[in-house]
Amino acid sequence: MANGSLSDGITMIHLHHCVSARSFRPLWMLEELQLPYQLHMLPFPPRAKARWFLDENPLGTVPLLVQGDVRMTESAAMCQYLAATHPDAGLEVAPTHPAYGAYLNWLHMSDATLTFPQTLVLRYGRFEPAERQQPQVVEDYSRWFLARLRAVETALTHSRSDHLCAGSFTAADVAVGYALLLAQHLGLDVQFGLATQAYWQRLQQRPGYQRAMAAQVRAAEEQGVPTTPAPDTRP
Asked: Mind telling me which PANTHER family this protein's record contains (predicted)?
């Protein structure tokens, strides 16, 4: 809904995004919530290829979400923010719910534990010039990610639900789902456990996920930005 009209009293959301970067988390959330937003596409890495963006975000990183006076740079936090500010959509878990602790844990684990090791695989396997690449780092942190992913496999294996917590699809599934998307770009998905494989397939079938995938490609083409996923590009 990149060009959707605003409802009364709602401030337009602006999301700065690179194709399939961590900013895909809030993009996916926006499509699940079917909120109006404006998507600003950037070449990857923006701090090197779109220097003007440093005026918007001194870190030079995506995502950057702006809504009025709200400015956020952490993708998992954006998932929590969007879910909490639109509770009727059912993508959050209330503090009074028994699964609230698990919900927060998955949100934070999605980036701090699952995405973090993959960023080292990306940097030292793809982004650095050949003379600075570190195959041992790539191997070690690929193993690290897969070892931490056992938490997802275990939770899904012992769950009576198709989702990670609270018996329903939540922002936690979006946040962890992006880590699985990144793993797919890195070729690590072939080592997913059976429960994780099935979970990832279910997530990809969601209309919100498919709309987000289509939205980023359409916006990139309209704004003259390469459509190659950021994990697959080199500076």
From this structure: GLUTATHIONE S-TRANSFERASE FAMILY PROTEIN (PTHR44051:SF21), GLUTATHIONE S-TRANSFERASE-RELATED (PTHR44051)
Looking at the fold, whether 53 and 31 belong to one and the same domain comes out as: yes
Give the CA dihedral 30, 32, 35, 37, nearest 10 degrees.
Answer: 30
Distance CA 181, CA 176 (A): 9
Q: Is the pTM of this model over 0.85?
A: yes
pLDDT digits (tens, 9 = 90+) for 191-221: 999 999 999 999 999 999 999 999 999 999 9
Cα(109)–Cα(234) distance, integer angstroms: 27
Beta-carbon-side half-sphere exposure of residue 1 (alpha carbons within 13 Å): 18
The verdict on residue 8 lying in a domain is no
Range of the domain at 140: 100-206
Tokens of 224: 């003259």
What's the CATH code of the domain at 19?
Answer: 3.40.30.10
